[in-house]
Write a structure and sequence with these properties.
This protein is of the alpha/beta class. It has two domains: 212 residues, Rossmann fold (3-Layer(aba) Sandwich); 206 residues, Rossmann fold. Helices cover 31% and strands 25% of the residues. The strands form five sheets. The chain has a seven-stranded parallel sheet with strand order 3-2-4-1-5-6-7, sandwiched between helices. The chain has a six-stranded mixed sheet with strand order 11-10-12-13-23-22. The longest helix is centred in the C-terminal third of the chain and has 18 residues.
C-alpha cells in the first residue's frame, strides 16, 4: 500500500498537471499506479481514468470518517504498485475536507507543489509557512514553473528547512483547459496522449521519481472495515452514463455492488428507454450542453417519467435533477422540454449557486433517511430551479441555510450530490425500496 499525496499551496498552482505527469511517468515505467482525488470533485478522477488509464477514486474526509477512508484506500489501492492521491485547493484549505486531513487520517506523506512564477527567495517563506503552520506529514516539495537557473536555490532552501527537494516542473506550454470547477473531460482535449507523453518525459528529467516512491507510506494503519449488508438477490439499478451525465462517484456504485446490486448503465442521450431495472440513478453532469438532444429523445423522457411516477425508486442529483424538470432554458433563452417529473424549470445564472459542503437534515421521511435524519452532501451548479424542493434543511459550515430537495418514499431529487459511502444506511434504505418495487411488480414472489 505505497502511497503519497500531491497537494498544493492553492488552487491553480499546478498540482493537477504534476499529478497527471507523475501518473504518466509511472505508467511509462510499466508500473500500475492507482489514483485518488481528495474532496468531492468528479472531473479529475474521470480525467485520470480516461486519459491516463488508471483506476481513480475519491477520498473525502468531510463525507467519510477515518475507517471508511482507509477502507476505500485499501479496496481500490490494493494490487497496484503505488497510489497517487491528488489534493484539493491548498493543502490546509477546507479543514475537515482538506488534503491535510486526509494525510493525517490515513497517515500518508504529502508533497507540496509550489507555483514559483514571479518568486525567488520568497519561495522559502512559502515553504516555511506550510511546514510550520500545524502538525503535518509534509515530506518534501515540487516546484512548478521554476526556471532551471533557480534549481540550486530551491535545493538549498529545502536543505536549510530540513525537507526534501523532489524536483520541479519547468514552465511548459502543455496545459489542460478548465470548465467550471475542474478539467474538461479527457475526450475534449485535442492531442491528449501526446501531451501526457511529453509530461511523462519532463517528470523523468526534472522530478526525482525514485525518491518520491521511496518516501511512500507502506502499511495502512489499523482500522475497522465497515459492515456492508449484502443480498444475494439484490436489485438491478439502472444508472445514467454518457456525455451529458458523467458525474458519478465510483465508490457509491462499488458500495451498491458490494451490497449485491447489479448495475446496468444506459444513455439518456442515445437509448430509447431505461433497461429493465428495480431502481434508477440519474447522476450529475452537463445536461445544459446537450439540452437539444435530450429534449429530442422523447421516448426516453416519457419512459423515465412513467417509471418514476409509477413508483420506481430514484435518485436524481444536480444534472439528473435538472433533467427531471418540465423544461431547461439555455443561456441563449431557448427552452427545451425535459422529463416532466418536477413541475418547474431550470435556468442559467452567472455564478455558482450554494457552492460547497452541506449537511442536509430531513424535514420528513423519505427515500434516503427518516425525518430529522441527516446526510452530508455537496453542491456546485451554475443553473438554478424554480422548484428546488423543500424536503431537507441544508446548512453550510458558516451557518448559512436553505431548504432543498424533492423527497418521497421513492424519490430523492435535488441539486446536492450524495456520496453513499458516507452513510451506508442511506444506501441500504434505497436498496430495500428497490426490492419492494421488484416484488410489487412481480406478484409471483413474496417480499422477504
Amino acid at each position: 500500500m505505497r502511497r503519497f499525496i500531491i497537494a498544493g499551496t492553492k488552487s491553480g498552482c499546478g498540482k493537477t498537471t504534476v499529478t497527471c505527469a507523475v501518473l504518466a511517468a509511472l505508467r511509462g515505467r510499466g508500473m500500475s499506479p492507482a489514483a485518488f482525488k481528495c474532496g468531492p470533485d468528479y472531473i479529475d478522477p474521470m480525467f485520470h481514468r480516461r486519459a491516463i488509464g488508471v483506476s481513480s477514486h475519491n477520498l473525502d474526509s468531510f463525507f467519510c470518517g477515518r475507517d471508511m477512508l482507509l477502507h476505500i484506500l485499501e479496496r481500490y489501492g490494493a494490487g497496484h504498485d503505488v497510489s497517487v492521491i491528488e489534493g484539493v485547493m491548498g493543502f490546509y484549505d477546507g479543514i475537515s475536507g482538506s488534503a491535510w486531513s486526509v494525510s493525517e487520517l490515513t497517515e500518508t506523506p504529502a508533497v507540496i507543489v509550489i507555483d514559483c512564477r514571479g518568486m525567488s527567495d520568497s519561495i522559502g517563506a512559502v515553504m516555511s509557512g506550510f511546514l510550520g503552520y500545524r502538525k503535518n506529514r509534509i515530506a518534501g516539495f515540487i516546484f512548478s514553473r521554476l526556471p532551471e537557473k533557480l534549481i540550486p536555490l530551491a535545493e538549498r532552501l529545502c536543505a536549510e528547512l530540513g525537507t526534501e527537494y523532489l524536483g520541479c516542473l519547468p514552465k511548459t506550454d502543455i496545459t489542460f483547459e478548465s470548465r467550471h470547477l475542474g478539467l474538461v473531460t479527457a475526450d475534449e482535449i485535442p492531442g491528449i496522449q501526446e501531451k501526457l507523453s511529453a509530461l511523462g518525459e519532463l517528470v523523468e528529467k526534472y522530478i526525482r521519481i525514485d525518491r518520491l516512491i521511496g518516501l511512500c507510506g507502506t502499511a495502512l494503519p489499523e482500522h475497522i472495515s465497515p459492515v456492508i449488508p449484502r443480498r444475494d438477490d439484490g436489485p438491478v439499478i439502472a444508472v445514467s452514463r454518457d456525455s451529458a451525465f458523467c458525474f458519478l462517484y465510483e465508490e457509491s456504485i462499488g458500495l451498491l455492488e458490494d451490497m449485491g446490486c447489479q448495475v446496468e448503465y444506459f444513455s439518456p442521450l442515445e437509448d430509447e428507454r431505461v433497461p429493465e431495472a428495480d431502481g434508477l440513478i440519474l447522476c450529475g453532469g452537463y445536461p445544459e450542453l446537450f439540452a437539444e438532444r435530450l429534449s429530442e429523445n422523447g421516448s426516453m423522457r416519457e419512459n423515465i417519467r412513467r417509471l418514476i411516477e409509477g413508483g420506481m425508486p430514484a435518485i436524481a442529483e444536480c444534472g439528473g435533477f435538472m433533467y427531471l424538470h418540465d423544461a431547461l432554458s439555455d443561456r441563449e433563452g431557448r427552452r427545451y422540454p425535459m422529463a416532466g417529473v418536477i413541475s418547474g424549470e431550470v435556468f442559467p445564472t452567472d455564478r455558482l449557486g450554494r457552492f460547497g459542503y452541506i449537511t442536509m437534515t430531513a424535514r420528513r421521511d423519505g427515500l434516503l433517511c427518516g425525518k430529522d435524519g441527516s446526510i452530508r452532501a455537496h453542491e456546485f451548479h451554475y443553473w438554478d430551479s424554480t422548484s428546488c424542493g423543500d424536503g431537507f434543511s441544508s446548512e453550510k459550515t458558516d451557518g448559512r441555510s436553505w431548504v432543498c430537495g424533492h423527497v418521497s418514499d421513492t424519490l430523492y431529487a435535488g441539486f446536492p450530490h450524495i456520496y453513499l459511502c458516507s452513510d451506508i444506511s442511506a444506501a441500504e434504505r434505497f436498496v430495500n425500496k428497490c426490492m419492494e418495487y421488484r416484488y410489487g411488480k412481480d406478484k409471483t414472489h413474496t417480499a422477504p
